[in-house]
């Protein structure tokens, strides 16, 4: 039996695309009487709230629009939306994301089939894929990141990031943690980003599984410039550093459930790679300056490793866009190596950066 679902959409300065987001949810093939939508305008300075209300007028019995007088941050906007949830499942959807008609039904299926599933991560595709070379590379990168990284984590029952753009949570699992999730601090500083990673942590700490549903697709807008992309990556890296450290502090709690051991071991290995990654970065660039030909070898190695991603993408999509896996490998090697060092230095900062 499929459950009632509440969809919470936090919005800030999104303009007309929030209208598209709400309309795509209204067009879902999920039974209409089982879906309610709560859109929270987080003190937008543009006409976002007008677009949200225009979409809500299409189904006033199903869509509620709430507003913050001042911008409080995505985490607080989500909390406001969560406070209106009365269903057993809550779904988060970003306000620059649109859903195919079958996405919502596919997303909640793992919860129906397995009561130990506390959260489900949907698959995020790129909505503005054809805009330029960068968005085409990101479309491939997103596909590989979800269909490879999250897919293998799902087999362990430990998907470490349930993306805010499209994820579902079992309300009786997460509701007790909402106040602590909203007010989390790290090294004495409040955390306004990384809400999705921390929510996944809370589910795992509670002893439930987090899984990935590859056929639950949402299409979201990605950065179209290098500056906005790098700022987004810094935000993600800060979240990863912070939440991975917090997860390590809860290992005894996680390991009380022996079924969580494989996922915990994976998390430990991933965490140990972080300092090694920093060391190899600085050591690698020092060697490049001393031996310039090493750069050409590094590019060749990156391309060779990217061939595996090319195969994965070709299996997912029979498309010549697979070539962008190779382009992204070189792009990341040459222009994105500074992201994690910067994130480490500024880990206490929580500015959204891309807004």
Detailed description of the structure:
By secondary structure, this protein is an alpha/beta fold. The chain has two domains: 1-96, Spore Coat Polysaccharide Biosynthesis Protein SpsA, Chain A (Alpha-Beta Complex), CATH 3.90.550.10; 102-355, no CATH class. The protein is 52% helix and 17% strand. The protein has 14 helices and ten strands. It has helices at residues 17-26, 48-56, 74-82, 103-113, 133-155, 171-174, 178-182, 195-205, 226-249, 251-254, 261-290, 293-316, 323-335, 339-345, and strands at residues 5-11, 35-42, 63-68, 89-93, 97-98, 117-126, 166-170, 185-186, 189-190, 209-220. The strands form two sheets. Strands 3-2-1-4-7-6-10-5 form an eight-stranded mixed β-sheet, with helices on both faces. A two-stranded antiparallel sheet has the order 8-9. Helix 5 packs across helix 13 (323-335) and helix 9 packs across helix 11. The longest helix is centred in the C-terminal third of the chain and has 30 residues, at 261-290. The protein is globular, with a radius of gyration of 20 Å.
Brief overview, please?
With 355 residues, the protein is of the alpha/beta class.
User: What is the H-and-E element order?
Assistant: EHEHEHEEHEHEHHEEHEHHHHHH
Largest sheet data: 8 strands, mixed
Question: How many separate domains make up the residues?
Answer: 2
Backbone CA Rg:
20 Å
How many beta strands in the DSSP annotation?
10
- Give the DSSP E fraction (strand runs of 2 or more residues): 15-25%
> What topology, given as strand order, has the largest sheet?
3-2-1-4-7-6-10-5
What sort of overall outline do the alpha carbons produce when their principal axes are compared? globular
Which stretches are low in confidence, meaning pLDDT under 50 for 5 or more residues running?
none
Distance between the termini: 40 Å
Give the helix/strand class.
alpha/beta
Mean pLDDT: 88
């Amino acid at each position: 039996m499929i459950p009632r679902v509440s969809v919470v959409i936090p919005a800030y300065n999104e303009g007309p695309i929030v209208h598209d987001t709400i309309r795509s949810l209204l067009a879902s093939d999920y039974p209409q009487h089982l879906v309610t939508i709560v859109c929270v305008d987080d003190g937008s300075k543009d006409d976002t709230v007008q677009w949200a209300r225009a979409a809500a007028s299409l189904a006033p019995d199903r869509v509620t629009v709430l507003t913050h007088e001042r911008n409080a941050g995505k985490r607080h906007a989500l909390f406001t939306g969560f406070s209106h949830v009365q269903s057993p499942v809550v779904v988060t959807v970003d306000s620059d994301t649109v859903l195919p008609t079958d996405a919502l039904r596919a997303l909640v299926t793992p919860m129906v089939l397995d009561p130990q599933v506390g959260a489900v991560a949907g698959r995020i595709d790129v909505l503005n894929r054809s805009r330029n070379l960068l968005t085409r590379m990101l479309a491939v990168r997103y596909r590989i990141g979800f269909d490879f990284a999250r897919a293998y984590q799902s087999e362990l029952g430990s998907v470490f990031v349930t993306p805010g753009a499209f994820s579902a949570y079992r309300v009786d699992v997460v509701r007790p943690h909402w106040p602590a999730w909203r007010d989390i601090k790290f090294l004495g500083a409040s955390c306004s980003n990384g809400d999705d990673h921390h929510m996944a942590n809370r589910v795992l700490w509670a002893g439930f599984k987090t899984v990935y549903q590859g056929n639950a697709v949402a299409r979201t807008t990605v950065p179209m410039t290098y500056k906005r992309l790098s700022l987004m990556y810094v935000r993600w890296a800060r979240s990863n550093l912070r939440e991975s450290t917090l997860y390590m502090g809860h290992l005894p709690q996680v390991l009380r459930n022996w079924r969580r051991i494989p996922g915990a071991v994976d998390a430990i290995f991933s965490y140990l790679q972080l300092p090694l990654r920093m060391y190899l970065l600085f050591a690698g660039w020092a060697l490049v300056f001393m031996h310039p030909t090493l750069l050409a070898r590094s590019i060749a190695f990156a391309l060779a490793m990217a061939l595996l991603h090319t195969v994965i993408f070709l299996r997912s999509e029979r498309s010549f866009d697979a070539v962008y896996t190779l382009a992204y490998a070189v792009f990341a090697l040459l222009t994105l190596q500074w992201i994690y060092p910067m994130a480490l230095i500024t880990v206490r900062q929580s500015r959204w950066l891309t807004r």
